[in-house]
């Protein structure tokens, strides 16, 4: 039985393949090739991937990622499709689901929404709830750099506080859109922001995410 992470993995691989190696993405200047290399390194080179969170290892991560980006693009796509090696923690379905569902969803949208003709993607209710559950768990971490109070709210009224403080900006949208917003893709997320004008501007410009 496929999982959310497995489905998003294959969807991301298809998007990267269709876009081509030089297609733009929403990831800070990365092209599709760079994004593909990031995904592969994160799963297959734990010694380097630690640099995502640990600044002293960032230079090593950059070097290893550049090495992977230099590989044939088709090889990177195939490595994403086939997934991590058997001995990787990511090879365990539970860890894959927990660690990669949001990762692959966000990166798939990074590819989609960087294209001029992108259209909103319909997310089924079960997947939307899965994204919301994960967002509830990490909202405070993702919103920690917000300079004002930040509340994320679904259309049905369910909310999570991403940053305490005043004034407060409330961001309303579907779970997928709120996820993108909280991961720093504010400009691409289809959401409504409610709050003081200056506070809204600060949230829109804030460096949210990991």
Helix and strand composition category = alpha+beta
Largest sheet: 4 strands, mixed
Mean pLDDT: 91
* H/I helix tally: 9
Could you give the order of strands across the largest sheet? Answer: 2-1-3-4
Percent in helix: 40-55%
Q: Give the helices and strands as they follow along the chain.
A: HHHHHHHEEEHEH
Poorly predicted segments: none
User: Gyration radius, to the nearest Å?
Assistant: 17 Å
Task: For the structure shown, list the relevant keywords.
210 residues, alpha+beta, four-stranded mixed β-sheet, 9 helices, 52% helix, globular
Structure description:
- With about 210 residues, the protein is an alpha+beta fold.
- It has helices at about 5-20, 30-45, 45-50, 60-70, 75-80, 95-110, 125-140, 175-180, 195-205; strands at about 150-155, 160-165, 170, 190-195.
- A hairpin with a 5-residue loop joins β1 and β2 (about 160-165).
- α1 packs antiparallel against α5 (about 75-80), α2 (about 30-45) crosses α4 (about 60-70) and α2 (about 30-45) crosses α5 (about 75-80).
- The longest helix is centred in the middle third of the chain and has 20 residues, at about 95-110.
- The chain starts with a helix and ends in a 5-residue tail after the last helix.
- The mean pLDDT is about 90.
How do the helices and strands line up, and which of them pair or pack?
Elements: H1 4-19, H2 32-44, H3 46-49, H4 58-69, H5 73-82, H6 93-112, H7 125-142, E1 149-153, E2 159-163, E3 168-172, H8 175-182, E4 192-194, H9 197-205
Parallel strand pairs: 1-3
Antiparallel strand pairs: 1-2, 3-4
Helix pairs in contact: 1-5, 1-6, 2-4, 2-5, 7-8
């Amino acid at each position: 039985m496929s999982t959310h992470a497995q489905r998003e993995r294959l969807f991301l691989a298809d998007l990267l393949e269709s876009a081509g190696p030089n297609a733009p993405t929403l990831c800070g200047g990365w092209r599709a090739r760079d994004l593909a290399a990031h995904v592969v390194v994160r799963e297959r080179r734990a010694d380097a991937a630690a640099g995502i969170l640990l600044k002293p290892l960032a230079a090593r991560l950059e070097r290893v990622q550049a090495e992977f980006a230099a590989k044939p693009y088709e090889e990177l796509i195939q490595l994403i499709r086939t997934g991590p090696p058997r001995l990787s923690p990511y090879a365990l379905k539970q860890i894959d689901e927990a660690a990669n569902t949001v990762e692959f969803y966000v990166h798939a949208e990074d590819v989609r929404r960087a294209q001029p003709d992108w259209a909103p993607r319909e997310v089924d209710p079960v997947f939307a709830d899965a994204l919301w559950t994960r967002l509830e768990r990490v909202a405070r971490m993702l919103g920690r750099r917000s300079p004002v109070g930040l509340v994320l709210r679904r259309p049905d009224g369910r909310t999570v506080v991403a940053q305490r403080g005043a004034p407060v900006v409330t961001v309303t949208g579907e779970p997928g859109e709120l996820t993108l917003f909280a991961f720093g893709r504010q400009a691409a997320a289809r959401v409504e922001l409610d709050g003081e004008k200056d506070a809204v501007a600060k949230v829109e410009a804030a460096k949210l995410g990991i």
